[in-house]
Amino acid sequence: MSQSKEGLKAGMITDPYSLATLGGNIALAGGLLGSSWGIGLAASAGIATISQHRSQLKNVIILAAIPMSQTLYGLIVLIIVLRVVAPGLAGVADPGGSGLIVFALGVMAGVAFATSAAYKGAVLASGIAFLAKTGGGILTNCLLLAVFVELIAVLGVVFTIMALSMLGLM
Amino acid sequence: MTISAESLAAVGGALALAGGLGGAAIGMAIAGYKGVATLAEQPQHLRTVIILAALPMSRVFYGLIALVLVISVVIPRISAMPDPAGSGFAVLACCVIAAFAFGFSGMYQGTVCGSGISSLIKTRGRILTNALVLAVFVELIAVLGLVFTIMALSILGLM
Lengths: 170, 159
What we know:
By secondary structure, chain A is mostly helical. Chain A has helices at residues 2-10, 16-52, 57-65, 69-88, 95-129, 131-134, 139-166.
């Protein structure tokens, strides 16, 4: 009873499990936001290219689908948080603080996924715009430069898992 | 629910890495889409474009250094401080400095590298050295962000 009164004074009562879950969801939200933004950028350039050169349809579909991967990375983080991290929170020395850490790591992963997917879309849109001029020859080079940006999202997943392991939450 | 000082510090480390990841992604993409345009004209500049477009990636490693330092060195010392809660908050604030430094320097180094990439054709690749020199100026801000974060943590007795 006294605890709930304190909580009312502070404004809100939440528990570590829900904070951690919120972090996982923000990671997936970042992935979804970035993917939709990136695919939108690439696809809008794709429409313009296809309307001129219908033969480039295959290359446009390949390039415009690439920002989708960040959604899968976000899903991986959410599943790890829900299945591995959140159930173990009750057993750690400082559940409240650990919940907040998982939330912060989820935000970190979300930022990595959103920025890398959205800006990868810009690289791919640039590649798609030059497909017609180069007769499809830009595909390999464009993929190469897009993979650079993809790497940031992969590092986001890896470092989230690494930080959770270092803090003993996984 | 109570929040410990140690977890506030870890949130700071995560923020620093988030800044590094965001800045690196945006910077590499800005250099990357200019690189695609250059390669569409002259594919022989691929090696130079890759060198210039990869420069903003270093922010991720600076962010990782900040996170690992906070988790492995700073957090174990917080409970021994005279004011643990305040120390946790100070670590969070120091890491916000690092996050700003990594985020903005990554983003804007991308524009410097992108400008260099756009001028590769006109200068037949000779702009590479000058573009690298100017990009290193922006890189310096990220290095200073990391150094000053470590310095502030040392001054506060947390390292």
